[in-house]
Amino acid sequence: MAGHSKWANIKRRKAVVDAAKSKVWTKVIREINVAAREGGGDPAGNPRLSLAIDAAKAANMPKDNIERAIKKGIGDDKDAAQYVELLYEGYGPGGIAYMVEATSDNTNRTAGEIRHIFSKYGASMGTSGSVAYMFDRIGLITIKLQGIDEDEITLAAIEAGAEDIKTEDEVFEITTRREDLFAVRNALEQAGYTIASAELQYIPGTMVKVDEETALGNFKLMEKLEENDDVANVFNNMELDETAMAAAEKL
Hints:
By secondary structure, this protein is of the alpha+beta class. It has nine helices and eight strands. The protein has helices at 2-14, 17-39, 47-58, 63-74, 107-120, 150-160, 181-190, 212-227, 242-248, and strands spanning 84-91, 97-104, 124-126, 135-144, 164-168, 171-177, 197-204, 231-236. The protein has a four-stranded antiparallel β-sheet. Helix 2 runs parallel beside helix 4 (63-74) and helix 6 (150-160) packs across helix 7. It is globular and about 45 Å long. Mean pLDDT is 86; it is low at 12-19.
């Protein structure tokens, strides 16, 4: 999981905020839309929607945009596009395993675009289940380190039902079982902690070390996948050690 935080930090450092905002909003709106359609428009009774709204607020999305996305999801806007969730699996350069989450209103278009990106960057699409067995679906909560007592937050997280807690890149990373993410997040908020993010992730059981050239190829693939409007999240099992991080700085 630490590797995904490092990659997130790299993206934040390299991002041009104004250019990136529209992309972030597009992805968050789609998540709100799907969450509301599946679980209803009340975040109090829909954990997934509550988490999506948190992500929208973290991205400084106006309240009106959030409310419109919810209305579209529950069907109040009959002309709104209807999104479906998609999951793609494949292998990147050097045999690195990939899980790609997407939301789309045109599955044929999205499948074609993802397949093209994989092919262009030395990767290949896999069939359903071809790499999923390598990953676990878990909850990941992050809280910034500043002013936080590590012993106190560790105790609070464990009491809330967390599985593990680590420090990485100036944040606490708190892992939970998939079904406990919402409850643990709420408990930590009620204890006075400010949540930086709370989301479900695919975490690989085993990480794979790569040389600098292979790492650079995978970073390029990851960037192109994440630039696609339909792609929500990209996960892989590449170990972000010093060699890989050196390659990342060359992007």
